[in-house]
Target: Pmr5/Cas1p GDSL/SGNH-like acyl-esterase family protein
Amino acid sequence: MSKPQRDRESKMGFEMRVYGWIAIAISIAICLCPCLSLEETNGERCNLYEGTWVYDESYPLYDSSTCPHIRLEYDCLKYGRVDKEYLKYRWKPSTCDLPRFDGQSFLTKLKGKQIMFIGDSVSLNQWQSLICLLHSAVPKANIIQQGGDPITNYTFKDYGVSVIVYHSTYLVDIEGEKIGRVLKLDSIKSGNLWKQMDVLVFNTWLWWYRSGPRQPWDYIQIGDKIVKDMDRMEAFRTGLTTWANWVNKEVDTSKTKVLFQGISPMHYNGTQWNEPGVTNCAKETTPIDGTSSSQGLPPASYVLQSVLQKVTKPIEFLNITALSELRKDGHPSSHNGFHGMDCTHWCVAGVPDTWNELLYASISE
Model:
């Protein structure tokens, strides 16, 4: 591991200790939010996010080689991944079953509607998975592809369903000004388009801690105050709070269903799975043993969950963090079109299919 990586891991560890004290409060408070669940056999409610990964020969849900829509970042089999076991795991909640994804049912339930994923490349990752799931269900469907960055739209014309991804790294705005690129933590100008959708799935985190040449802004602005930099976790909290206030003020949740996806975990540090000498996910072929409840959460998760408590309108928390934390085997590693080490994104087919099964369960309720 390089020194910058070690420094980042050390910093993240410190932040975990700083934010860890609020975990108990969050776990209590989050119960006040709408909770995605199904009925157990005894009529009680089941938490779909508490469970384990089980081996299932009927998976994956589709053959990725037949999906014409996978970007080179996520197409692991095409770019040389030999092991296939990572494709065979199904998410099993502890006290009920997660419904198997049914593409025709999904399109029928959303007939005439628009679903939009809004966020960074993790949102793109989930969107790609959904496109493949739907394509495999209706392979002869008339699909119209429109747009490009920041908006790409696949419309399943026979159903009138638009599946859209809107690339927004921070959700809040970045604007070019005389002094340079300004990250405006209190501004969401794209919201006028977002709130016209029928289903919104938000996500952000991946870029909040980036610095140096890969950082896409030069200054941060809150109100009239402009600074060169600030504590990134506090900036994350401020930006999310702007989003929460936007939902409270602007979104009619009787017409638009709003979900926020939990933090997508990375696997660059073997201490996560009790192998401290391992520095990435390259040789991982099986999940981490254990249940989702056994996994510690990244600091950003506590910040996200605390801000979600500020949303007064009904939204759903697509809480994929702990269950994805178990999947050290689910990343492309070097099996992508760039041949770089990627333990951040996820293979398609793979873990994002489960995220979409959870989304399907939410829409089906």
